[in-house]
Amino acid sequence: MSAVTAGFLFPRTPSGQASLLPPPPWHYSGEMLTIEYLAEPGAVAALLPPPLEPVADRPDAVAAVWAEWQWKSESGNEELDPVRSQYKECLLVVRCRYRDRDWSRCVFIWVDQDASLLRGHIQGYPKKLGEIWMTRPALIGQAGPRLAPGGRFGATVAAGSRRLMEAEFTITGEAESAGFVNAHPMLHHRLLPTVEADGGDALHEIVKVGSEVDLGTAYVGDASLRVFSSPTEELLSLAPREMLGGCWRRVGLTFRGGETLSRSED
Amino acid sequence: MSAVTAGFLFPRTPSGQASLLPPPPWHYSGEMLTIEYLAEPGAVAALLPPPLEPVADRPDAVAAVWAEWQWKSESGNEELDPVRSQYKECLLVVRCRYRDRDWSRCVFIWVDQDASLLRGHIQGYPKKLGEIWMTRPALIGQAGPRLAPGGRFGATVAAGSRRLMEAEFTITGEAESAGFVNAHPMLHHRLLPTVEADGGDALHEIVKVGSEVDLGTAYVGDASLRVFSSPTEELLSLAPREMLGGCWRRVGLTFRGGETLSRSED
Amino acid sequence: MSAVTAGFLFPRTPSGQASLLPPPPWHYSGEMLTIEYLAEPGAVAALLPPPLEPVADRPDAVAAVWAEWQWKSESGNEELDPVRSQYKECLLVVRCRYRDRDWSRCVFIWVDQDASLLRGHIQGYPKKLGEIWMTRPALIGQAGPRLAPGGRFGATVAAGSRRLMEAEFTITGEAESAGFVNAHPMLHHRLLPTVEADGGDALHEIVKVGSEVDLGTAYVGDASLRVFSSPTEELLSLAPREMLGGCWRRVGLTFRGGETLSRSED
Amino acid sequence: MSAVTAGFLFPRTPSGQASLLPPPPWHYSGEMLTIEYLAEPGAVAALLPPPLEPVADRPDAVAAVWAEWQWKSESGNEELDPVRSQYKECLLVVRCRYRDRDWSRCVFIWVDQDASLLRGHIQGYPKKLGEIWMTRPALIGQAGPRLAPGGRFGATVAAGSRRLMEAEFTITGEAESAGFVNAHPMLHHRLLPTVEADGGDALHEIVKVGSEVDLGTAYVGDASLRVFSSPTEELLSLAPREMLGGCWRRVGLTFRGGETLSRSED
User: Residue B119: in which H helix or E strand, if any?
Assistant: First the structure.
């Protein structure tokens, strides 16, 4: 009397067509602005639950990242229905130490599409909805920066009718490589409380996620960042103490799956 | 070196302030339009994974529900920052049989806010983002229906720049009680695929969820419903074969937690 | 060879169906929160172009108004397609003197729908798009204020990813009448620059607009208001110096047309 | 006692800072997809009010245009606050004859930002709000088309929770020039009804608008277009009878002002 249901994610149905997400591989093409800085001493450590520990070198380094993506699955043509394939996100990345190596770790992130929100939750990104904007380079005309020294970019993120962060970046040149905070495999927690809401988690995993990466020219330069208060965020604790610099580049990614490193019952 | 982090949901931080959701109890006050109909024979059964089975009486009955909510937590004042506390949702509810009793079950649902989206996922509602609208009664002036016989209401849901369903409801009178499809405790699956995306689920639970309910006057009447096609939905299979009727009422809810009925490793 | 085109507003077509607006009468039913205060001396006068002058009594009084509407035209059924008929707005109203009488005048306003935006421009309201939220009374359940002493309401407006104003209001009782700033017929300018953008206006009118009004119970009380900075607004100049009070009430309106008082060529 | 107020558009204030628009010149940089086709005989003529007449050659030709823009004013830095400077639009362009020459003319257009909406009204574009999406070329990675033969693009426009049009375009090669429908100066009406809403217009002008144009490589190819029904649109009358082709290109524009050709009192 009952049915076999299919689909990578809910809602599951006989055909799997309604699933909020198709299965990986997921491909991404986009533009990414990364701004690195040092927060107050101890600010990053305060966000690392045990057994994660701060890294030895510049433990308070943070990367504020803005990205504008188009994605598609391997089997689908989502890119031809761009309301489904385009989105923007903003995230704060730190580093941590776990099992004798250094990892990158996303501590806050906002995105403007549900497919990306859930794709993030599956990978352990603590995604919320937000409104994200970043200046595009002007490849023609006069309404924006050229990808050349002097080109200035802005970027903002808001949620709950409040601006949360705003950044500015000015290209000073090109570089072979750029950035060290968001340069490791990602170490995330995947969490879901019990439905009893009794203080425990029904799912509590530590996972490794990463993508195959295709990097465009790194345009590096100077950056500034402002952080604002909000009753639903804790960004003031990660406000910049010292700016390190920024980088704008085109990026291609492919995610094929991560790895569960630890699974605990809470 | 590392920190104790808190919060009902991610992102977890020392204070718990950034958590996408505060812990239950969650209170809701709102308005709900419920439209009941019969789908084609077997349409509901096709959406029930084993061990769920169709109910014996009118197994193809479906309730299409539109609701407009304001919510708050027990400890917070979310209702005073209404960008955080107001949202709308639209869902399709069916019934199923499990462990010798009848249950209600949400098979498709769209909502327009991230807190509600995740609150749904925690309760096993397969929520996606959508754009939901429902006519409000006009308690003054001429721009809407009165809560009286002849009052006409419309309701729509869209996602991905496509209208998915539209309904119309006309009050014929009041009733002591109304509706039978969405009248049982809810039986949901809570699902999350493994990060390996290897076809298995890291979380696969059957849960019971329900709320304390405070019901206003039931305005009952006649209803119609149109269902449209979409590459990301399977609503055509649940299109109406025979309309049963509708009901508009004010509703108050309190959710304190559900119950895990089954936890399986996939 | 060419056609007769119809429609109250553009785009005009043979049938008039595509017009962004149907012709008046326009009916509105909704809820309105009005907060009155005194700004710094001279703050209101600075916003009144000649020949408008400040009023004699409390010339710096301002009303900050939040409203949530459902509208319909006389001939249409927009209320049955609520994506077209529901919207919110927030406005700042002052008073001015012109032709020997006192008028109300909207100096800043944000709305979240294009039909309302253009309807505003036709009436001389300087509408921009914004994100507007106001607490709803809870007529059932626990997720909001009752319409009774102690009931607390919040209201916010944002634009360009920035919060512009936020207010709070607490009911202390009921009143026969309430408010004096937004109590006169409205005196507005209707403006459109020449297409040459040479500094002149092709349309420059002073108009009187007003509606037939149906008022519900006035719940009056205490209010606070915070005003934030923005590069595209000048709200700081209208920040409160002294709060006067607030009022929440249901309102019905019908707009049938205004009156052109002055038409000048610039 | 009263003030000098400034600003290109409303709301006018002492500083002009709050004006919904800064004065021209306005610069634009973006990407444009143009799809040309023939509608049913007479379909275009039906949308041309006298004294406009159809052109002699292929009078039923229509261009469906999708564009994604970043804009800035000459004096401002709007591009550094991209929530203000980025938007998308979709328009239908036809041709008409007036004063012994051929013109292009926008008959329907949707845009997703208020500054662009009003800038359109100032230039006589009958802009409404809509949700517009177009596939971006993938300059890196696998999530989109390359700017090369075989590259496939999609584009959609929706309003009022309804999809209005969707298009698909496949690059077949490059061309020196492309398109003939949107190739003339634009001839538009600027309209505003009287505030009396008595059937007359307070502003009724025929204007010429055009921009300085900087064109990137024209990628031409095959196109399809589907048009859907809506109670607030008349697009079915402009549905394609025969597709002509498409073109994707980067475009830079500068608008410095138009020219009033006729001003009538209605």
Answer: helix B114-123
Q: What is the DSSP letter of A121?
A: H
Give the pLDDT confidence of D84-137 residue by residue, as tens digits: 999 999 999 999 999 999 999 999 999 999 999 999 999 999 999 999 999 999
Q: Name the residue among D121, D94, D126 with its Cα closest to residue D110.
A: D126
Would you call C76 an interface residue with chain B, using a CB distance cutoff of 8 Å?
no
Chain-chain contact of C156 with B86 (C-beta, under 8 angstroms): no
Tokens at C210, concatenated: 């007003």
Count of all residues that appear for chain B in the document = 266
Residue A102 has a pLDDT of 98
pTM, to two decimals: 0.97
Which three-class secondary structure state does DSSP give residue B45?
helix
DSSP summary character for residue A17: T
Contacts of A225 in chain D (CB under 8 A): none
In this prediction the ipTM stands at: 0.96
Q: What is the DSSP letter of A165?
A: E
Going by their DSSP bridges, the two strands C212-215 and A162-175 should be labelled as unpaired
Query: In this predicted structure, what is the pLDDT of residue A199?
Result: 94
Counting as contact any 3 or more CB pairs under 8 A, the partners of B are A, C, D
- How much is the average pLDDT of B53-77? 97
Looking at residue B124, what DSSP letter applies? T
Query: What letter would DSSP give residue B140?
Result: S
pLDDT in the model for residue D2: 55
Dig out the tokens for A200 from the structure. Answer: 């425990």
Say how far apart CA B18 and CA D21 lie, in whole Å: 37
| Residue C177 pLDDT | 82
Chain A within 8 Å of C228 (Cβ-Cβ)?
no
CA C144 to CA C248: how far, in whole Å? Answer: 14
Residue ranges per structural domain of chain A: 26-183+213-249
Nearest by CB: C133 against A156, A158, A161: A161
- Decide if pLDDT at B3 tops 80: no
| Element containing residue C116 per DSSP (H, E) | helix C114-123
Closest residue in C to D162 (Cα) is C83
* Strand residue runs (E) in C44-150: 61-73, 86-98, 101-111, 127-129, 131-134
DSSP string over C135-197: PPP-SSSSSS--SSTT-EEEEEEEETTEEEEEEEEEEEEEES---STT-SPEEEEEEEE-TT-
Query: Which residue in chain D is spatially nearest to C259 when comparing CA positions?
Result: D196
Q: Following DSSP, what letter does each residue of A220-244 receive, concatenated? A: EEEEEEEE---TT--GGGG-EEEEE
β-strand C259-263 against C201-209: which pairing, if any? antiparallel
Residues of C in contact with A162 (CB under 8 A): 158, 162-163
Q: Which residue, A184, A183, A189, A185, is CA-closest to A260?
A: A189
Task: Give B26-183+213-249's CATH code, choosing from 3.90.1150.10, 3.40.50.300, 3.40.50.150, 2.40.400.10.
Answer: 2.40.400.10
Going by C-beta distance under 8 Å and a sequence separation of 6 or more, which residues neighbour residue A30?
A67, A68, A69, A70, A250, A251, A252, D141, D143
DSSP chain D: -----B-SSSSPBSSSTT-SSPPSPEEEEEEEEEEEEEESTTTTGGG--TT-B--SSSTTEEEEEEEEEEEEESS--GGGSHHHHEEEEEEEEEEEEETTEEEEEEEEEEES-HHHHHHHHHHT--EEE-EEEEPPP-SSSSSS--SSTT-EEEEEEEETTEEEEEEEEEEEEEES---STT-SPEEEEEEEE-TT-SS-EEEEEEEEE--EEEE--EEEEEEEEEE---TT--GGGG-EEEEEEEEEEEEEEEE---EEEEE---
Q: From CA A144, how far away is CA D251, in angstroms rounded?
A: 13
CA angle A227, A228, A230 (to 5 degrees): 135
B15-57 tens-digit pLDDT: 999 999 999 999 999 999 999 999 999 999 999 999 999 999 9
